[in-house]
Specification:
Length: about 550
């Protein structure tokens, strides 16, 4: 008998089932249901901003843009108009999907004698958020840019209450934030970190957003706002120029596509991380996963081994398709998944999988949101400024926090820096279809853990038929090609750890609901009733709003 077989036999003898899901799992956050439309995001006020647009007759794109602009105000540590992102839209009328890529790009003159810094003006890439959200609204929305931006403007001007999560992140970053006068004025009043319950206002940002709402994205990329950004950069050793900003374009792309247990998976195309998500799922599809046992040792082992191979291929092959020929046909083929699955030893952990060069860990400082409207349209959107508070720089007089995306290039290989190139990222906004009908829309932040969390969410929904909130709150784990340990939340079953240890696994234990694993949001559509069921992650300040 194999090691796993022996352990499973012992579990049956003792009456315990390894990795079984609780019969009636209690959740920290309630699952929300609604018949018409729904928004799930990392902050209640952002979800309400999106719902405001849905109630006003807007579609999923309008609501997603409203929530995206708003979350950049109320969760300023994770995103904003000084950053970038990507959204995936499923259009119910045409049964087609499109991705709007607004990843940041490398300035033309960017050059570093050594390692790219994590903070300061030289770490800043050309921001894409304004261009991307404006393009999405123009092409696929029904409301004006001014209408979708109105909630964000209101929140920036009138203020919002700082959550314990935001207060904690500000406290952790206090030294760096207080060193930048504009940042300190907003988040460190009176020389101290903002406290939970205090009102945070950013009137300069409100004015900036009002200008964009009135004059369109040109004012950001070619007008007065661009002038302020460039002047700030030039005065502080940055690389951003007027031509960098004026030349920036958001790009419409086709999402990557795959199958898992008959479910169609649509996700973000290169240079973002939908490819490893689909590759991992299609490898996992070659293994039996028993319903109701998401943490069974054989399941965790199969997931971990699938992820390791997908991560390795991502590092070796995925980059900006404008600069690199990404072999998508091979990476996403079922034949390749079958070959990769045959490499897995069911009785032994693979210690190392060959990978390309791995850039620095960007951490969990990203945000995701999902929308389902009354027409059947779905949007999954993920955006970021890279690290918490990005480059730790706010452009004076504008309220804009700039990203530090330049550090996410690699020193060599397919992800090496080049002028105008988009650095890759593992963000993976995802849509699931059963046949041609929407099944679910989901997304998560979390740096390298994004792929793992997305795969687990899909498996929880498809393999184990979990309610959406349970699927989000289930204990998480993470395996990567370049890391020895299996990272697990403390709720991970002891019996499963013991079984996996016999296969060679070691463990990095995290908190019971750890921000390390991001903050997922998801909406599931009931095929019979059309009702939406939404879930939001208690690892962040996630909230679902519906009507």
């Amino acid at each position: 008998m194999t090691r796993l077989a022996i352990l499973l036999a012992l579990s049956l003898a003792t009456g315990r089932t390894l990795g079984a899901a609780p019969a009636a799992a209690a959740t920290r956050n309630p699952e929300v249901t609604a018949p018409h439309g729904m928004v799930a995001s990392a902050h209640a006020l952002a979800s309400q901003a999106g719902l405001e647009l849905l109630r006003a007759g807007g579609n999923a794109v309008d609501a997603a843009a409203a929530a995206a602009f708003a979350v950049g105000v109320v969760e300023p540590n994770a995103s904003g108009i000084g950053g970038e992102g990507l959204l995936v839209l499923y259009r119910a009328d045409t049964r087609e999907a499109v991705a709007v890529d607004y990843r940041s790009t490398a300035p033309a003159t960017a050059a570093y004698p050594g390692r790219v810094p994590s903070t300061g003006h030289s770490a800043v890439a050309v921001p894409g958020t304004v261009a991307g959200l404006a393009l999405a609204v123009e092409r696929y929305g029904t409301k004006s840019l001014a209408e979708v931006m109105a909630p964000a403007i209101r929140l920036a001007r009138d203020g919002f209450v700082a959550s314990p999560t935001l207060a904690g992140i500000v406290a952790d970053s206090f030294e760096e934030l207080s060193a930048n006068a504009p940042l300190a004025s907003v988040f460190c009043p009176d020389g101290l970190p903002v406290e939970a319950g205090a009102t945070v206002k950013n009137p300069d940002l409100a004015t900036t957003l009002e200008k964009i709402a009135r004059y369109g994205p040109d004012v950001f990329y070619r007008g007065g706002i661009a002038e302020a950004i460039v002047a700030e950069s030039a005065a502080n050793g940055g690389f951003l120029s007027r031509s960098d900003l004026a030349g920036y374009r958001a790009i419409l792309r086709e999402p990557v596509r795959g199958k898992y247990r008959g479910v169609t998976v649509l996700s973000g195309p290169p240079p973002v991380g939908g490819t490893p998500v689909i590759e991992a799922l299609q490898i996992l599809d070659r293994f039996r996963v028993r319903k109701g046992r998401p943490l069974a040792p054989e399941t965790v082992h199969a997931v971990a081994e699938s992820l390791k191979r997908a991560y390795a291929d991502y590092h070796a092959f995925v980059a900006d398709p404008g600069f690199v020929a990404v072999p998508l046909d091979r990476l996403l083929s079922r034949a390749y998944a079958k070959r990769r699955a045959k490499e897995v030893d069911r009785n032994r952990m693979t210690a190392k999988v060959v990978a390309g060069e791995v850039p620095r860990d960007p951490g969990p400082s990203t945000t995701s949101l999902v929308v389902a409207d009354r027409h059947g349209n779905l949007v999954s959107l993920t955006q970021t400024i890279s690290d918490f508070f990005g480059a730790k720089v706010m452009v004076a007089g504008t309220g804009i926090i700039l990203n530090n995306e330049m550090k996410n290039f690699s020193a060599r290989g397919v992800n090496a820096m080049a002028p105008g190139k988009r650095m890759r990222t593992l963000i993976a906004p995802t849509v699931l279809l059963r046949g041609s009908k929407p099944f679910a829309v989901l997304g998560t932040p979390g740096g390298p853990r994004i792929s793992a969390t997305t795969v687990l969410l899909v498996s929880n929904l498809v393999d184990h038929d979990m309610p959406v909130q349970e699927a989000i709150e289930a204990p998480r784990y993470y395996a990567r090609d370049t890391e020895k340990d299996l990272a697990v939340e403390s709720r991970f079953p002891k019996e499963t750890r013991e079984a996996l240890a016999s296969l060679g696994y070691t463990f990095q234990e995290m908190k019971d609901y750890d921000l390390f694993f991001g903050g997922a949001q998801a909406i599931v559509i009931d095929r019979r009733t059309g009702n939406r069921a939404g879930g939001a992650d208690p690892r962040r300040d996630g909230t679902v709003s519906g009507y």
